[in-house]
């Protein structure tokens, strides 16, 4: 816990924070490396120096002087002995660590060095020892980062020195680094290297400057080349520094907009090690999954092959596998996705629905799509099913087909239908055929080349009709009421897992869904339990609904003996379910109140943070 760093905005592992120093620093950012050594006139962050050369006493005196000058406005990186990360922690027995003499000259913001496997000292800023040497080594980089992030408190800042360039700034922020510096940008300038987010250029190779900063606007590469080395380097350094700052501004905007992932998916192509980091980050899964919000307000663009391994996509598929139960119907209809979301509002789906007519109540509809895999009709509103867009070419690559087939195969091997009809063509049909062959099941195909042609739609109608009127068909169906209830039930299960069953147990009365699609409301008698929020397809609970879901003991935040007003701050949280993700609907329980609201951070972070809003409370019920 720290008083000097506050996280304001999160998007996955990336976050926007504030280092409460003088002047205040907005993170993620790049420090001016040269200023770190300025102890005479200290800026917001200074490095107190090395234990290789100074004695404890000298260094203590130094810190005291800094504090006298700027008080708590300066974060002091405590004296340290740095080693290259290649030397394993266990052989560092003799590393000198700085200890204060107890007179609290450290009193105020402080930073300390941290290495993989090393001991975590109390600090406001952790500096990753030797991380700069791990450039181009995505695996070691990620391993180090995850080890450190899992051990330091979430409300402290993490500093990766000697690494940032405009080209990797977005990836560093995406992975959860808050602070960097301009060491590399400065070194590049002295080597005649011109930096951009799209990579670096030798000054010699440039005909024009792809930038309009003050330096670039007032000179040309040819002119710059004629200047003496020192002067040239100064100007290049000014541009490089500017390019780095501009990139961090852009990154912060991307975090605010909730689309840093999309940006990074493109940006990482500049360097293979950055692309490797993107992929390895997804393979690691839990590090990012814990931090990725349950929903976003903005669109999810699935335009690259890595979209298939993106946390939101994998999580959706996983929840269908683990939490979803289909309604009790005997006919499955597989449909292709549509560009317009929710699918049911698209022209093609409108036609399918119209065609099914009175037989629709016998049919369970599941939509096949890339990259989400399969989307049961009841979850078509739920993030990210109604929020993704993808480049449609009609061509599916092998990875896409394999992923979507896998999702369909999982589903069909778990649930038995009396009849499976697929109104699909092209790659969708290929996927269905592949799964049918593998599982040895029969699928009836009803579409020709055009899904909405008169022939195709007639074939769909006739096929479903003949199944429904065949002898021995048990006529399992859902009426309009049941359909609405199944819809809300599917969303509740997706969101709360087993906790959903308490909303529908009938223990407190028969649950009824009121309202027109998509504004469904779940009632028991006159008591409202939950409302479906169409924008992201999830339920907002009422306190009565919260009381029921509470029985599963999941999505619960326990607070102390107080009645909350407005938001609940992290220090007020005693215990929180580690399954809680940012934006999850949660139930807050204390001795004096039961509340419902939305998580602003993950459950783990609520427990470990000393600052920041943990839950935005919507309703408070005094107990
Ligand atoms: Zn420039």
TrEMBL record:
Which GO molecular function entries does the Swiss-Prot or TrEMBL record give? glycosyltransferase activity; RNA binding
Q: In which pathway does it act?
A: tRNA modification; archaeosine-tRNA biosynthesis
Please list the GO biological process terms of this entry. Answer: tRNA wobble guanine modification
Check the record and name the InterPro entries matching this protein. Archaeosine_synthase_1, ArchSynthase1/Queuine_TRR, DUF5591, PUA, PUA-like_sf, PUA_sf, TGT-like_sf, TGT_C2
Keywords assigned by UniProt? Glycosyltransferase, Transferase, tRNA processing
Entry annotated with the keyword Glycosyltransferase: yes
Q: Which Gene Ontology terms of cellular component type are present?
A: cytoplasm
Q: Does the keyword ATP-binding apply?
A: no
Q: Which organism is it from?
A: Methanosarcina mazei WWM610
EC number(s) per entry: 2.4.2.-
SUPFAM superfamilies, alphabetically?
Pre-PUA domain, PUA domain-like, tRNA-guanine transglycosylase, Uracil-DNA glycosylase-like
Q: Which residues form the PUA domain?
A: 555-622
Entry-linked NCBIfam families:
tRNA_mod_ArcS, unchar_dom_2
A Pfam family per the record: DUF5591
Q: Which family does it belong to?
A: Belongs to the archaeosine synthase type 1 family.
- What's the protein called, per UniProt? Archaeosine tRNA-ribosyltransferase type 2
Instruction: Report which superkingdom the organism of origin falls in.
Output: Archaea
- What PROSITE patterns does this protein map onto? PUA
